[in-house]
Structures
1.
Amino acid sequence: MVRADEGVGFLLRYENVAWYEDGAVQILDRRIYPIRVEYVTCTRHEEVAQAIADMVTQSGGPFLAAAMGMALAAWEVREKPEADILSHLEKAAYTLSHARPTTSAKMERVTAQAMDAARQALAEGRSGASLVEALRENALRQINENYIRYTAVGKLLADKIPQNGTIMTQCFAETVVGTLLRECRDRGNAVKVICPETRPYFQGARLTASVARDMGFDVTVVTDNMPAYVMEKKHVDLFTSAADVITLDGHIVNKVGTFQIALAARYWGIPYFVTGSPNPSHPDMSSVVIEERDPALAMDALGTRTTLEGVKGYYPAFDVTPPKLCDGVVTEKGIFSPFDLKRYFES
């Protein structure tokens, strides 16, 4: 397999996302990177699910973690009869795919592919370590195919950025950050990147900015209440984000704060392009659960409490940007209007 992570930042190399080896899954702890480079080691698939729930990894990271978690689940029952193996893997698939509620439909596709790989391997007579290896190979195939898909997305998005232009991101768009910047570098386009910090986990400051810097780009971090002013002051040419969910009717569910940046972009006449694909499991917002996380995190900055005792916090993990604020959904098949996403499935 030719790996598609060549030339991207440290964070995006497969081994630094999630990696199964010798009965354990190692996950780079994105909650503390780049302050410290540490890995969380999981020796049970339930620990992988907990790591996903605890935000050890996020953005695209949980998808590889879940796939590698399925290899770990196979290791747990490698000496059991086939019926017991399949039963255990089915339970593991549910646990891993439902670690976070908003993205469970997408995660189910990851674990379903792992189940298909397991059934095929068992049908071929593979067992023990060979079965585990089949699921590890499946995990690598999944992420590699995802990177290849987002290489196409990165090319299409790069077409929208003027030479030596300035873009603003939101949160950590994972693979598309690496593939977009790799494409810009290949074209000789020295884009500037502006990253809102993305509290309370500071993914923009710690992750997106780190990848951009690691790849040699001019990158600036701003606080989360600066984007509207900075867009005009720094002549931002394009705002882009990924999406945790894109509904078939064009609503974009992404890290909370995306909606307000999209509003500011529309005011200044700056295009907003979201990357990702519409999810047929979510025809509209009625089927999407917006995750609400520990309110205490809204009163904390990298481990330091910022409020008096008795002050309350509120932390919705995502917000919803309506389709009228989006100029296009950038997919591996092309750029689609958020009002016409059914064409994605016809192309």
2.
Amino acid sequence: MVLLVHHSISPQSRKIRLIMAEKKMLFVLKEEEPWKLSQEILEINPGGDLPILVFDGKVVSGNYAITEYLEESNPQYKLLPEDLILRAEVRRIMDWFDTKFYNEVYKYIVAEKIIKRFQFKQAPNSKILKAGLNNLKFHMEYIDYLADRNNYLAGKEISLADLTVAAHLSIVDYLGDIPWNEYKNAKLWYAKIKSRPSFKEILKDNIRGIPPSSNYANLDF
């Protein structure tokens, strides 16, 4: 049995779920609150971050380690192109969103609206939210540019770049904070990605006490 320890508001966890679904893998989910990890989880991953992959008595932890492991161990469904320059481009986009978007948007919007609520029982800070929404505009413009330039974000075929970006956007979209009509190319690209079978379970995610936006699970927006 393959076990994925995750949380639905972790974009890294969502990315790994999408990758495993694209690779037709069977797996079981175990949800852990990232702000209150159990001792059991800390023992198998002292780093204290999600997701964590557990199988056959083995543990693979860390966003990039799991991503590379899944790509190398399941080569029949490739999500990295053969061309080395295109591979570098896929990894560059992944890093942009796992690092830059995460620090400039996720930590300002999702952390304020969700994590702060559950971890500290506090209301979000409006100034921080405003800063996050301003940062979001820059990133949406960039996605719009990438989607206009290529069939997918890093080329003609779907790749890890698309799954990474979609995983991050899906959480912000759950909260209803993306003005999709202002970004035509990004909207068409995201509709294409979230219509894939691999996205089906992601669109069923429900955060306790916080209902999804009206268009979150709507494949046609």
3.
Amino acid sequence: MNLKELKQQYNESLKSMDTEETIDLWFYRPLGFAWAVLFSKLGIKPNAVTIASIFLGVAGGILLYFGASPLIWLNYVGIFLIIWANTYDSADGQLARLTKQYSQIGRILDGVSGDFWAFAIYFALVFRELHFGDAWLGDFFSGHPWVIWTLAITAGVSHALQCAMADYYRQFHLYFLKGESGSELESTDKLDEQIKQTTGFKRITMFFYRNYTANQERLTPAMQRLRSELRNQFGDQMAPQQFRDDFRRLSLPLMKYTNMLTFNTRTIAMFISVIIRIPWLYFAFELVVLNTMLVYMIGRHESLCRKLTNDLKVGKYNN
């Protein structure tokens, strides 16, 4: 395979340039692509890569617990493992796109992999605060453990919401950019139909995934009205190109927030808080900075959906 063919294959492994973040393009995607090519040659499936990322991420999170010498060096091993896990998290999607091995179970598994990492990291940081303290407020948290637990739980809930909404907006953008085949956008109506046709463990998994999607829909009423109006006017057909162009123009500036609310920005903040030995600052960052970003992103996206819904109703996109 020559360089031109390799570059083309790499580009095909990406979701889209609209939704890629700079750090990913310069670091995680090239490494993920290298892993994907290797795994493809070895016959390793995307879901196996996702499972490997879970073990790496959880191990890395646990190593963040050690907050005092002589084991503080384990924090750096933990950071390395979390970064390694994210290269696998990138590789599983790139491998699926390269080999056309898509599956709904794979998407669900990919979504929950980050949750496993998060559980390990949050518990490690809480017990670190309680057992080792830190430069600021260490004695306070030791004497009032409920405070750090409250911070961690509310930050964890915020984390889950931020990632869910960022992914939902990204998939909505990809739907109009690349069509149904290039997006993983779901709806509870379709998932309800699929659940009726499944049994056993897959049915249980689909049930939780359905509730995950339902929560996304509840937080986006204007988006759901836009989707309903599109179905009313165009049925199962894709919206006209002019509508898709208008949506992309309005949605594209928000894609940077979907990236900031997923992995890179939050992990940089978390790594810094661990290195300077003030881990509770990471919880505060999620609660204040990232939640502010989330509220802004939801408000902006709902506004653009209301605008486009009104444009549809007055016939702007009718031929």
4.
Amino acid sequence: MGKETKKILGFIAFGVALYAVLMNFGAVIGALKDLWGLIIPVIAGLIIAFVINVPMKAFEKLYAKIFNRRGKSERNFYGISLLSTFVCIILVFYLMFTLLIPELISSLTSVYAAAEVKVPQWIDYLSSREWNIDIVTDWFKDFDFKSLLGGAIGGMGTVMDSIVGITTSTVSGVVTAAFGIIIAIYVLLSKDDLSRQSKKVLYGYLKKPVADKICRIANMVNDTYTKFFSGQCVEAAILGFLIFISLTIFKMPYAGLIGVMTAILSFIPYIGAFLSCFIGALLVLLLYPDKVILFIIVYQVAQFIENQFIYPHVVGNSVGLSALWTLVAVLVGGNFFGLLGMIFFIPLTAVLYSLVSGNVNDKLDKKGLTVKS
């Protein structure tokens, strides 16, 4: 059978299949939904495995160094590394719900109490200076801080109740989560075998240059995301703890709240540092106006020490992305997907930048051109 005949038969088969799909569109959509419901646990398991693999690899290297025996590789410690990772995750959630959240609620309550007393005093002070603050006065009179705080605290409880209710009352959700965790465990315990099998399929069905390129891109994505998230998590914890200790030493209010806020916002480059300092200054201004300048100095000094002496060793140029492209990634990711988009788009942009720059350099080399600045 010639190539032209195969092409004609292929077009005919495609036309028949397309006609069958259009004539039974509702049934096809229903089948796709059923198929999606079947593969959701697999997708969830792969995502969980990808995230958990980051701390698990750290435990693998740690145990390989501690039990440095001849013939022992990191693969021999997959089981204990996975168990250690789950223990750390459970411990983090336990500490969060028993220590962190009650402390944050207490801080927010004190913020409301301070606002209720201090804001009217500030309004009176500005009025005595003949400042026109009618708009601020009207807004504050109509604004109910107590309802806002109660709604925020109640909202957190409502969200948690909704999450618990969904996971406990919806059987499909429980099954999906359980199967996702089980699949993640199997994937992590047999990741070397799965990697080898995936490569065999790629090289078996695709040409070697194409398979090589896919493997190279996959390794680049894995390395970039691993370096970024591991570095950022450690850096966020160190920065939040450093800010908390610094503010506590200088007896600043809301040290715990500002430390937690700094750790969370540190995942957003450039913008996060400014926001955490600005919001912290407002909170201090609310209670102790005479300490605002000291707060800004202490905060900036602590952040400077972290940026100059800790950040380069913990994170460094983990994604190999310039400040301009990092800012572009934050803006684009935040515009489309909010906070998570800001975080995930940085390593994604680093991967795309590396691929594009490599392709451009290859084309220039083939043309024998050298571009100078």
